[in-house]
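Pipeline run #58 for the internal structure catalog. This entry was flagged by the ingest filter as a single-chain record with no existing model, so it goes straight to prediction. Upstream metadata was stripped on purpose; only the residue string is passed forward. Reviewer on rotation: M.T. Logging verbosity set to normal.
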Amino acid sequence: MLLVLCVDLDDDLGRKTGVETPVVGRDAVEAAAVELATADPEDSDVNVLFEGIHIADSIDDETVEVAAVTGCEGDDVAANREVGQELDRVLAGLSTGEDVRALVVTDGAQDESVIPVIRSRVHVDGVQRVVVRQAQDLESMYYTIKQVLDDPETRGTLLVPMGILLLIYPLSIVANELGFPGTGFGVVSALLGLYILARGLGVGAWLDTAVDRARAALFTGRVTLITYVVAAALLVVGGVSGAQSLEAAQTDSSMALGVLDIVAALLYGSVRWFAAAGVTSSLGRVTDEYLAGEFRWRYLNAPFYVVAIAIVLQAVSAFFLGLATLEFMAIALTGGTLLGVVSTLSFAIAESRSQQRAGAA
């Protein structure tokens, strides 16, 4: 037995006419087609229903039944599931002992996405696509474009560069009006270059991860969110202070500064602020670990290490700038080293004793 199955995936038949589906039988399908054509003469599903009737009438060498099944609007997964359920009811209602085969009639590529669902229930002999001759492949092209635009990855890859390129002309007009010829092209080229560079380096994924972490820190009350912001501000201040220190060193020197002197001047002006940023961020991390119940004594080494390194760099840079003696640098190097060693030993002993007390308890 051949079942001519007309598929309306988005349920235009049910929504526009109120006809209950599935519709089984030639007369019932014809009546439903007439109702749909009356309600919306431009609906392509009208052609599907009449094509199903035409195919059923043209076959006279075997038993033929025609039926119409529908899905639902919006969700393709739910629509496919609905079509499968209606097909089960159609097959259950066919009173025949013959093997049932299906010939699926659709109006385009979108409805054909349900073919695997139909094949899981009945053998499919073929698929008949019905389109208006003047609009051959129009719906397939529309569906393909729609799928491309619905995909975030493809949308970002295609539309963003196209949008940036389309900005060249209006930006060029604005630049010419403002007396900056060529600025528009330069801005658009820079935007396109930044986009391509970001795509190549995977900056988008990194930004998404950073935003997710910041959001989690904000809503879970983590201290690091505040300390990182403060540390970033201190780093900016340190950079400005380093630049000012370099400018002062260049002003005081009658000769051009060498590379070593430039590095020393930058370090001398900025290292204190950088150390403050490191201590601030490390204390915030230690606080969060303590609040989370994952505190370890060795975590307290971080701020002491930062201070020790800052002392060493400050002394070395001051010596090269002629602001400190060799003896002072030696004392600073020794003090920084001792600070790091003492902190490491102290917190290691404290953590060992803490573990022993925990084991004894």
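catalog note: The radius of gyration is 37 Å.
catalog note: The CA atoms of residues 104 and 247 lie 81 Å apart.
status: ready for reviewer M.T.
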